[in-house]
Amino acid sequence: MNIKQVSEITKVPASTIRYYEKEHIIPPLERNNVGVRNFDEHLIRRINFAKTMRAAGMEIAALKKYIYLFDKVPNSQNEQLELLKQQRTIMTNKRDDIQIAINHLNYKIEHFADHMMTSEHELSELKQQRKKD
What we know:
By secondary structure, the chain is an all-alpha fold. The protein has 2 domains: 73 residues, Orthogonal Bundle (Multidrug-efflux Transporter Regulator, Chain: A, Domain 2), CATH 1.10.1660; 60 residues. It is built from 6 helices and no strands. Helix 4 runs antiparallel to helix 5. The longest helix is centred in the C-terminal third of the chain and has 34 residues. It is elongated, with a radius of gyration of 25 Å. GO terms for molecular function: DNA binding; DNA-binding transcription factor activity. This is MerR family transcriptional regulator. InterPro entries: DNA-bd_dom_put_sf, MerR-type_HTH_dom, MerR_fam. It holds the Pfam family MerR_1. Keywords: DNA-binding, Plasmid.
């Protein structure tokens, strides 16, 4: 498969795939006789993994470290597991922060009319006070 096909399959822009190659998130790709990159299913899985982790907020440095350990360091399973656990903690904290914000928005939406009426009343009083001054 070429980069355009892989981009369509993974929904990852070709520029991002090239960046992943440059940053060694995916290994250097074999090219055919005219220089077109050749992708296989393994690389598609790697791109999808990177896409998922990045969407969840994993930083490039952490992703690169995990990939490096996975690809290059024999018997690094404990380090890989520890890095994944650290990332899970970071992502869980982010999720919790987002949930707090969603809960706050839900409250504001559910009580929007109350807030608007109070705010409009306060603004009206301010306008009247300014007119008197």
